[in-house]
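// run 5 | inverse folding | seed 20
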């Protein structure tokens, strides 16, 4: 991995930490108030996190010049895939293996980080050159 790509990955991870913070806040609030179970609460939190991540990645990580009408649908397609992976991980860990939900969420977040970075780098935020 080149130095430029490594620095961009680090920026992506830092931005992701902000979105993950939003996700954990929603997850904790919904589970601790017994409004939802861990898997459903994690999914809703992931949607909030994805919105935060889109704005920050667009402006900071990728410094995109692409139109939102082009970039946003791609980003949210990647995010939807990430949410699906997150949901499967949460179901397996929290529901099936009975891992405490916050620990399960940490593991699920790690599973999603690398794959979404790659997809966003090579597809969602890629600008067209004619």
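// decoded
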């Amino acid at each position: 991995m080149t130095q430029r790509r490594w620095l961009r990955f680090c920026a992506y991870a830092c931005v992701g930490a902000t979105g993950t913070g939003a996700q954990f806040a929603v997850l904790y609030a919904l589970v601790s108030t017994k409004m939802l179970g861990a898997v459903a609460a994690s999914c809703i939190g992931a949607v909030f996190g994805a919105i935060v991540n889109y704005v920050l990645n667009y402006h900071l990580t990728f410094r995109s010049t692409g139109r939102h009408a082009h970039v946003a649908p791609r980003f949210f397609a990647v995010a939807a895939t990430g949410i699906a992976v997150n949901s499967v991980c949460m179901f397996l860990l929290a529901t099936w293996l009975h891992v405490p939900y916050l620990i399960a969420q940490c593991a699920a977040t790690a599973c999603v980080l690398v794959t979404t970075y790659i997809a966003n780098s090579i597809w969602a935020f890629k600008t067209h050159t004619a």
